[in-house]
Specification:
It is a single chain. The protein is of the alpha/beta class and about 500 residues long. The chain has 18 helices and 20 strands. The strands form four sheets. A five-stranded mixed barrel has the order 3-7-6-4-8. α1 runs parallel beside α6, α11 runs parallel beside α12 and α14 packs parallel to α15. The longest helix is centred in the middle third of the chain and has 17 residues. Iron/sulfur cluster binds next to α8, α11 and α14.
């Protein structure tokens, strides 16, 4: 086997597991070592010189479930492996999970406990108290082999916590099924290994990144409403466009609805940071809802401009993306006066019914350069074009784009943390691409496709204005799990803007 093939070593404890792994890998790309079952054999395999040249190591096999959420055939990726005496070793998990998702699997991530024997039901309940989600008999001891190299564990559940077992493969049907799934899943391991590196990588963090003042305010509004009025607190639309923020608030009692008609009469409803059209306010009033408005003040400013231009008889060209909630809210302020477009090449076809007084407004989260092109084209066609007193594209959007531009030239790839419905996050991907840097949008570390990182020396990381900073930490940790990294911050500007909360939340709920 060549040196390159030895760059990945996969440990498989049992003969049947090793056979499934070898068949799954079809002989290429990895050295598969059968270790034998249990801690002693795992320790011996960890000391073997066979893996000395490997760049990355993995364990593949079956496991027993501890978490009641796991079913036979589920795939578990270890976030860490633990010994019975409490020693925990971190594993590379997010990028392996992404590689599994690319193959069509939905892996479960969590700690795996390594235990000297497969326990009965009583023992599994004691294991559950440790917080581990699954149990095996080797991984934590095999982890000693890694000695700082990237290390991952992929296990397939063979039995559930309800069943007593003498041995994990004693359930013949479950065992065969698990081994079949293992065979199909193991190609994710070389995909994961392709993203690992023995050489140090630079990780450049764009600054500013992550939450803006409007998002911080909107989230705090929901948190304070929950504390003051108790759950449920209804929120019209996603409070900000981020999956993690929405899930977290849901867990704490927020109920997200699409329209105020879904909110019980008289209940409390929060309007999202993107703003609402006057029609929505009227609907809420009709239903006697207690409204708390989390519209970002910078969006409110655009609404005021739309009303001002409409009152003065202007035809308003709104530069923005159709279907975005902010655009719907702004358009609702002057529906008869506003025309929407998103690109410069749409300007020529614009029909403003012979209007001479023309004004433009923009969505707050556009790409600055693209919006400038559209406005320039509008000005060519309408030399007296009026515009907002100050830019509608908000400080947070332009600062995050400037930060990306400042480091894109140094990066082999840029990871942009944000949800797919986050306009400002998507613009960061486009800005990087225009600077010649491949960029990818991801919700969290479980979406880091290892192929993005293959052969890279410098990885940029940023986060859209609606993505929490904790996700940046998790992505950086996931990168560290793929090989040594050096992290550097690159700040282009400091941000200190803060917005005050609505009066009813500042005064403890008095309305
Ligand atoms: S991105 Fe800009 S407009 Fe949107 S919430 Fe943040 S500060 Fe407000």
């Amino acid at each position: 086997m060549s040196t390159e093939q030895r760059s990945l070593v996969v440990f498989a404890p049992l003969r049947v597991e090793a056979a499934a792994v070898r068949r799954g890998l079809r002989g290429g790309g990895a050295l598969v070592i059968r270790t034998g079952m249990g801690p002693d054999r795992a320790r011996a395999a960890a000391k073997s010189p066979e893996h000395a040249e490997a760049r990355a190591l993995a364990v593949a096999g079956v496991c027993g479930a501890i978490s009641p959420d796991l079913r036979p055939g589920d795939i578990v990726v270890a976030t860490e492996v633990r010994t019975p005496d409490g020693l925990a070793i971190r594993c590379s998990s997010g990028p392996l999970a992404a590689a599994l998702k690319a193959l069509g699997f939905e892996p479960h991530l969590g700690p795996i406990l390594s235990w000297p024997r497969i326990g009965d039901r009583d023992e599994r309940e004691a294991m559950a108290a440790t917080g581990a989600i699954a149990v095996d008999m080797e991984s934590a001891w095999l982890a000693e082999a890694a000695a700082g190299r990237p290390f991952a564990v992929l296990r397939v559940v063979v039995d559930t916590v309800e069943r007593d077992l003498g041995h994990v493969l004693a359930t013949v049907t479950g065992g065969i099924r698990a081994l079949r799934i293992l065979r199909r899943a193991v190609p994710a391991i070389p995909r994961w290994a392709a993203g690992t590196s023995a050489e140090p990588r630079w990780v450049l963090l764009a600054g500013p990144r992550s939450f803006c003042a409007g998002v911080e305010r909107a989230i705090e509004i929901v948190e304070r409403a929950l504390a003051l009025y108790g759950p449920p607190v209804f929120v019209r639309k996603e409070i900000v466009h981020n999956l993690h923020v929405v899930r977290d608030l849901e867990r704490r009692g927020a109920v997200f609805v699409n329209e105020v008609e879904e909110v019980p009469e008289g209940a409390t409803v929060v309007f999202s940071a993107h703003g609402v059209a006057p029609r929505v306010r009227a609907d809420a009033e009709r239903r006697h809802l207690q409204v708390i408005d989390a519209t970002c003040p910078l969006v409110t400013k655009v609404h005021a401009e739309a009303r001002r231009f409409a009152r003065a008889g202007y035809a308003i060209v709104l530069v923005g993306h159709e279907g975005h909630e902010e655009v719907e809210g702004t358009t609702g302020e002057a529906p008869g006066a506003i025309r929407l477009l998103s690109q410069a090449d749409e300007v020529d076809a614009l029909d403003l019914n012979g209007h001479r007084r023309v004004a433009y407004l923009t969505q707050t989260t556009l790409a600055v350069d693209e919006a400038d092109q559209v406005v320039a084209k509008l000005r060519e066609r309408y030399p007296d074009l009026a515009g907002p007193g100050s830019d509608d594209i908000c400080y947070a959007t332009s600062n995050r784009q400037d930060a990306v531009k400042a480091l894109a030239g140094e990066c082999d790839v840029l990871l942009v943390i944000g949800s797919t419905n986050s306009s400002n996050s998507r613009r960061l991907v486009e800005v990087a691409a225009r600077e010649g840097c491949p960029a990818f949008l991801l919700d969290d570390e479980t979406e880091i496709d290892p192929s993005w990182l293959a052969g890279t020396r410098t990885v940029g990381v940023t986060a859209g204005a609606s993505a929490p900073e904790v996700l940046v930490d998790r992505v950086v940790e996931a990168l560290a799990g793929l090989g040594p990294i050096e992290v550097q911050e690159r700040h282009v500007v400091a941000e200190s803007l803060q917005f005050t909360l609505p009066i009813e939340l500042r005064t403890g709920g008095d309305r």
